[in-house]
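[audit] Reproducing an earlier prediction to check determinism. Same input, same settings, fresh worker. If the tokens differ from the archived copy the diff job will pick it up downstream; this log only records the rerun itself.
[audit] input (410 residues):
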Amino acid sequence: MRWYLTGIVVSGFGTTAMWLVSGIWVKSLTGSDSLAALAAFALWAPVLLGPLLGTLADRVRRRPLLVVLNVAMALLLPVLLWVESADRVWLLFAVLVLYGAQGAVHEAAEQALVATTLDEGRLGTLNGLRMTANESMKLIAPLVAAGLFARYGGGPVALLDAASFALAAVLFALMPVREERPARSARPHWWRETAEGVRLLRASPVLRPLVATGGFTMLLAGVNGAAIYAVVDSGLGRSPAYAGVLYAVQGAGSVLAGLLTGPLLRRVPERVLAATGLAVFAVAVGVRALPYGVTALVASAVIGLGMPWVLVATMTAVQREAPAEAVGRVAATAHTLVFAPNALAIAFGAGLVAVVDVRILLPVLAVAGTAWAAGLAVRGGRRGGDPGGGRVDGLAVRGGQGAGSMEGGA
């Protein structure tokens, strides 16, 4: 856990810095807001291919795959030193697409490695600490990245990110993990294996509602994020820069959420934590409509607290319930279904904010979120469980605190 979390901190620092600077870099070279927005899309686009990319994580040993992925990015990022004018922005976009694809495979390999090497009782704790590590870097890395870019341009930020990938590769290589080589079918077929991961997720009565809840939460989060500047401007009467304060407070809430998640998942099933997190998040979104500075700050902190509970609960359930030989594919499929709605909702929300007052929009989001959370809790409470684990469409799923405890406990 120590080696893994240290690798997450190091790579998370560089990734956060690069993601922030990419849009600023494009804007500074081209002067185009649209192209700057496309930088974020280039990073997100490969998530849509998550189920296909995640298949790779089930075909090879996961720790060596993580090392190779990090080394590859460490070698690729220095290419961005040649991006010095608008006519070379295409190179930045090409690297960002590869960056996003690497991230999709890396995420699947991480989840599969953790699921197959760590005992189930510690999964929630590790996932919570992973969330804390990532969110902590989001509080620090933007300041470093913005300072570097303002003084020296994008090249040094790319080199900083490359160095973080190289160090992460070393940390993952030193991680004391023993893995069995994955069994290979006599006639491997990439598309068939990918479809199997999708089918396993659809067939699971435990994972299906949790992944749907994660996707719905990120849908609401996308609209809420698109409304942030309207809240700051028309609601609070502040300058757009104040949004940075709200995001920082939200990040602090997410750091706290990660620390609390492990102890909570040892006491309640994933479904309960997801329903609670969505309800807390939704209420805070509604409170954000109030035109008071104090309530806006409190709401931001509570949003940061509730949303990670949904995501970590879903991630932990996937690691516990998916068959060991298919964790990468199922995790990548779940990741796509959870996070793709966020990207779509940001674009949709940007148009919605232009025609709907945030004092109406945000309470509507709050009602929708609390209603979904109540439905998730009620459905969980009505089902019986099998404490010893079960089978999904003929394939074994791990028991323990898996299907039985979640179905019966919620």
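[audit] rerun output stored. Observation attached for the diff report: The chain has two domains: 1-173, 193-410.
[audit] end
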